[in-house]
# Entry
Amino acid sequence: MLRNGFAVIIGLLALSTVLAYSIQEGFSRRSVEIHRDFVHSQEVLNNLRRVLWLTGIAARDYFLNEADDRAIQYEQELAKLQNEATSLLPELRKSGAHDKTVRELENQFHDLLTTLAGSGAGAQGLDKKNPYEFIQQEVVPRRNAAGELLRDLEQANRDSLSDSEKRFTSTRSAATGSLIFLLGACLIAGILVAVASTRYSNHLERQAMERFIEVSEAKSQLEQLSARLMEIQEEERTKLSRELHDEVVQNLAVLKIEINRATTAVPQEMAELKRSLSQAKILAESTMRSVRDISMLLRPSLLDDLGLEPALQAQAEDFSRRTGTVCELDAGDVTDDLPPSIKTCVYRVVQEALRNCEKHSRATRVSIRVVQSQFDLNVEIRDNGVGYAPPEQGRSSPFHLGVLGMRERATALGGTFTTQSAPKEGTVVRLQIPLNGVALAAPHTIEAHA
# Structure
């Protein structure tokens, strides 16, 4: 609708421009033509008037001239005037108007010139006539009649000019009215398109706002759901970790003690039985370590019992022991009275970052830095591994789900999570969580090596 409306407006504007240019060109051309025709007609009439008066003067000069060659001069002058009149009269006929008056004028000129030529006898025919009577009775009446016709034609030419000007004005008024109508149509179409586009854009804006509110509410609900799921997950992990530690590990410890007692009670000659009991003891110890590691992985008791710093220290040492990678921990500004949710978030983010480092980075050194201020808690995990190219738009990173989980944990606490990496330049993971004025502790640095 908007496209068609604007196309109509542009088309009307283009049409009005072309029409205005055409009108202007037509008016200018018509005005020039009217002026040219009038000037040409006036020029022809003036020349005929001049010829008319020169014929009378030629006759008078003939009677007053006493030269021997006056007849020859007179005939030459008369022939010249006749030729000029013959060439000028057709110019009047070309106009197509006042044909009757032009024909009468032609007859008067022909009669006058014939009379001046001595009715075909030449200049000698005038010698037999009385000069005064000839001029007054033959020349003057014919010359006056021709002059009247010329005045009539001149007046008719002026009237024709006035009529042309009136038609020109009328045509110009009609064209101006058409142009004004077309511009009015452009204005009305523009107003309609503007109103329609405004309403349509307002409708789209309302729809976009409604969708934005829906998406925001859905995102908020998803974040709340994700936070609740992670909370439930941590609760289940804590419960399972404690059950493993309190039940399974204790039972395995009792089993180990009983195996030791049985080994002591077996006589020396029962060497085969002693070997079986030793194998059972080793298996019990291995199982106990595995269960303890699983319990630590699910929920480290250090995090709840001693705080964030010892838990991160144990995690760094375990990472160094398993991978042979140097892992440095700097948590000098962390206090022991952080909320459990913050401690859990930091621990899980560091845990996931170290897991990604172990799987993808091939790093030889990893540093963990935790800085706490009055307003926020900042965590940075940096390695010197191979890094990775930032994913293109619409594609995920090599460990997208892990990054998504870390980002969701940070968002649930109102914090931010970012990653920075480049090929052969390592990876940096940053976590920032806002606090509500937690006191600072004395700084210290802990290093864990393989």
